[in-house]
Automatic annotation (TrEMBL):
Subcellular location: Plastid, Chloroplast inner membrane; Plastid, Chloroplast membrane
Domain of life: Eukaryota
Protein name per its UniProtKB record: Protein TIC 20
Membrane-spanning intervals of the chain: 58-79, 99-122, 134-156, 168-189
Primary role: Involved in protein precursor import into chloroplasts.
NCBIfam families per the UniProt record, alphabetical: 3a0901s05TIC20 (TIGR00994)
Originating organism: Cicer arietinum (Chickpea)
Length: 210
């Protein structure tokens, strides 16, 4: 009897202590979890083209095509490395030869001067239309990409550069950059922003808008 009384008294004491502990410690409110999945924003990069309220004037659209002449010249010169493209290039040699010779006759420092003047006086100046500055920046980035591709390719062994691998490489690079340049020229003529992956975002962050 004494053992049962002691066990019952200890159980009451423990239960009372637990109840007292639960009464003294405040309970934190439960956080309700939302069942809706997070939605991605419309533009993951955070850059948005300014609204086109009206179509740019025809002279701005024409001037926006001029920066793409340098990448067009560069990709045409690199295409001569792929000998399987020579029959294709000869079809347009009558139209492109005077332009290629005129660009090729310029001194070497003219390209650096063009980049500095175009970037400091056009891309970074708010006095020019945003549409025109955007296409100037994209044309410069295309030219830089072609220059980097040409420099890196010279580090390859000559058997790769002039061999079968080089033929397929320059054929792929020619059509890739050629169609990209033509698409940019088309967008400039119709008064649109060229939505080229990587290039459009890189050009947009260089232009002060506000």
């Amino acid at each position: 009897m004494a053992f049962t009384d002691m066990s019952s008294a200890s159980s009451l004491l423990l239960s009372g202590g637990q109840n007292l502990r639960f009464r003294t410690i405040p309970m934190l409110p439960r956080l309700h979890r939302s069942c809706t999945a997070p939605r991605a924003t419309k533009d993951a990069s955070g850059f948005r083209f300014p609204p086109m309220t009206k179509k740019p004037r025809w002279w701005w659209r024409t001037l926006a095509c001029l920066p793409y002449l340098l990448p067009f010249h560069q990709v045409w010169m690199y295409a001569q490395t792929a000998y399987n493209l020579h029959p294709f290039l000869e079809l347009f040699e009558f139209y492109t030869y005077p332009f290629l010779m005129a660009i090729g006759s310029l001194p070497r420092w003219s390209l650096i001067a063009y980049f500095l003047i175009a970037y400091l006086t056009i891309v970074r100046r708010k006095e020019w239309p945003h549409f025109f500055r955007f296409h100037v920046a994209v044309g410069m980035l295309l030219e830089i990409a072609l220059q980097v591709t040409g420099i890196v390719s010279r580090w390859m062994p000559l058997s790769w550069y002039w061999g079968k691998f080089g033929m397929h490489f320059w054929t792929t690079a020619f059509f890739l950059f050629l169609f990209t340049t033509i698409e940019c020229i088309r967008c400039a003529l119709v008064g649109m922003y060229a939505d080229i992956p990587f290039f459009c975002d890189a050009a947009y962050i260089q232009i002060p808008y506000e």
